Amino acid sequence: MESLKNKGKRGIQKMKCFIVFLSLLSLGNSAPVNGCDHLVKPITVSKEDMLGRWLYVGGSSDLPGSRSLGRLLKSVWLDVTATAQRNTLNLIQAQRIYGECSSLTYNVTFENSTMIIEQPFYLKEVYLTTDCSNCLVVHEEVTSGKDHFTSLLLFSRNKTVSSDVQETFKKQAECLQMSSPIMMDPNYEMCPDDVPSSEGLSALNSLLEAKMGHQVARILDSLFDLFVN
């Protein structure tokens, strides 16, 4: 009888340890609380604020392939211009992957501090706070069929931002429970303005719909995160 009691006590102790372990896991996986409300609250941005050239500084995303692509990208810039339609903007995006430059062009709807694409996939961008007057912190959500992806991107009018701005950006990613952002090397060569453009949305949509490609891209992301610092 004494042996059964001892076994029972040990069982209860193990159960308590297991509950504590689960509680610690829960705490470890929860988003930080201090200061997060302010950091992830969308801010007001006017159409005029959006216009002009923006240089990509860094970002975090759960889009398949984004982690590996983030380390292969050598530079990205965006040119945002107004169109004849009041709530429509035109974007030209140029990127250099090693020595090769390519560019995409597409229109977006911009209204009430929100950028939206409705077809062929759904994209919504809002903008978060930053202490950098020449920066834009983009919180982006993309829905393609049943798939949902989130990105957090930092753009600037300049090639570099201060370490404080980078730390705040990393904190925002942490608050949103996203992977640590991959930051660009500021000593990069920008793509020229005259790179031939292709229709951007159809090209992006084909990548989003490539389910088999998603599996391969996620494996590449894991390998890059494991072996590349």
Could you explain the architecture of this structure?
Pfam families: ApoM (PF11032). Keywords: Glycoprotein, Secreted, Signal. This is Apolipoprotein M. There is one protein chain. With 229 residues, the chain is α+β, with helices and mostly antiparallel strands. 36% of the residues lie in helices and 34% in strands. The protein is built from seven helices and ten strands. An eight-stranded antiparallel beta barrel has the order 1-2-3-4-5-6-7-8. It is globular. Residues 14-33 and 210-227 have low confidence and may be disordered.
Largest sheet: 8 strands, antiparallel, barrel
Measured as a percent range, the helix fraction is 25-40%
Our count of helices gives: 7
What is the rounded Rg?
A: 22 Å
Portion in strands: 25-35%
Report the strand count: 10
What is the end-to-end distance? Answer: 58 Å
In short:
The protein has 229 residues and is an alpha+beta fold. The protein has 7 helices and 10 strands. The longest helix has 28 residues, at 2-29.
